[in-house]
């Protein structure tokens, strides 16, 4: 196995540990996979700065609205930006105890930026975005397109 393949395996294991910590509702273990100064952008746009903010929010969420959830992560790609920096893209979401699969309306795409710290990899930045394709056909997009073109024309005329 090449060094790059070993690093990719370690990166995938970092994400797997984060998912296992989520499934155990262990906010401290989940946040431990992130760097001390990590950035975390949730699907609703909430920005957390630092491991402690990550831990505190997830402890609250695991006790309330995300109680009993499990994390589903399907890694799409891992790309190395440098020897010690990688970006990972994944599809994923959380599944509530009464659900079998992720509902299509809650599917998210995640971007994870991981950095090597010693022999380990940690998450330096995380972005979670709902998968919501922009509708580009049908009456609503057509009417909105007309409106945008009309407003753009008016703005150009002063």
From TrEMBL:
InterPro entries: DUF4440, NTF2-like_dom_sf, Steroid_delta5-4_isomerase. Pfam families: DUF4440 (PF14534). Residues 11-123 form the DUF4440 domain. This is Uncharacterized protein (TIGR02246 family). It comes from Nocardia puris.
């Amino acid at each position: 196995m090449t060094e790059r393949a070993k690093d990719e395996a370690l990166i995938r294991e970092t994400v797997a540990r984060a998912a296992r910590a989520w499934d155990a509702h262990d906010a401290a273990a989940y946040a431990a996979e992130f760097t001390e100064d990590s950035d975390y952008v949730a699907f609703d746009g909430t920005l957390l700065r630092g491991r402690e903010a990550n831990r505190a929010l997830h402890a609250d969420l695991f006790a309330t609205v995300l109680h009993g959830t499990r994390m589903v992560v399907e890694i799409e790609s891992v790309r190395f930006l440098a020897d010690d920096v990688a970006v990972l893209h994944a599809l994923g979401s959380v599944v509530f105890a009464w659900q079998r699969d992720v509902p299509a309306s809650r599917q998210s795409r995640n971007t994870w930026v991981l950095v090597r710290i010693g022999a380990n990899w940690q998450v330096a930045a995380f972005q979670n975005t709902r998968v919501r394709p922009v509708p580009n056909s049908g009456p609503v997009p057509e009417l909105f397109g007309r409106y945008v073109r009309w407003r753009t024309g008016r703005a150009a005329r002063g």
